[in-house]
Amino acid sequence: MGLATSQQLTKYYDQYRDTEITFTKDIIRALGLDPRQVYVKCNGGQWPCIINSTSFQHAKIIVGTKGGAFQALAAKNNPTANIRFCFNEPEGDEIITFLVASRVAEIRPYMNSKDLVIVTLQYTTRPPDDLIELCGKLLEANANAIRRREERIAINEDSKRKLNLAKEECNVIVSSVPRHCVVRDLSFSGARIVLIGLSQYLTGKEAVLRLEFNEPSEIISVKGTVVSADLVPGRKDVCIASVKFDEALLPLSFKMHLNDYLTSVRKIQLSAQEQLAQQKAAQEAQLVAKQEVTQAAAASPAPEQAPASPQA
After folding, report:
1. At what angle do helices 6-15 and 129-147 cross, to 10 degrees?
2. Is 148 helix (H, G, I), strand (E, B) or coil?
3. What whole-number distance in Å separates Cα of residue 239 and Cα of residue 156?
4. What pLDDT is recorded for position 271?
């Protein structure tokens, strides 16, 4: 963690300040949240709780009505509380833990239950940078999955490294039959793959593309449909197939891998544009300086000539 710049963190905070993230299984897995290590501290005590959701303004937790946490949180005058988050670093044994200071804002029954309540904890300070970075990247990935859904990423050595894609060779399951394939390109909306098969038996069939990624090491299954398949020139048994993903079922971890690539490329492009802009500004400044020197020289009076010496 700690890779985002202060400018990027401020952007995340301002842009997604009020956006709430509900901790589904997919989100818990993508963020590396350890739900067993989430606690609420209040009035000198500490109790495990269920984290339901968070934004950069508040969190919602679920506690039992018969436990000590409820008794402490339900005290008069909206008591202060700290919520302890715990995340696992991908591909490492380190964990990220931090406390967020808050105050009880609301307590209400959870889904009409008599035994559980959902407690809204309003943050009293800006949350730690780690939480802003984790949630900001997730929210940005969801936004770019819509805004940049058609941007194609050609698979080569450079893009594999930036995507953390282990290899371009993978498996695709077409109509429940696993096949070997090679990925040519990826996007949020689909992929192009090369595989052995006849086009008439591939087009229109359901497909599951199984991609192997690093950091964290995982195999991500992406569901879709083969929308077209064309024979490779000179081959009668090899096709280039276009798979359209079911975007409603797109795994969040897949979105985050693609988003990391797109944002890294965007940073390189912006850096190059800034360098060009700086070079252009320097050239323009030099030109202006030369023009000013020329104008000043033209405006200044010519020096008087000394009188000629009398001839002998």
Report:
1. 70
2. coil
3. 20
4. 47
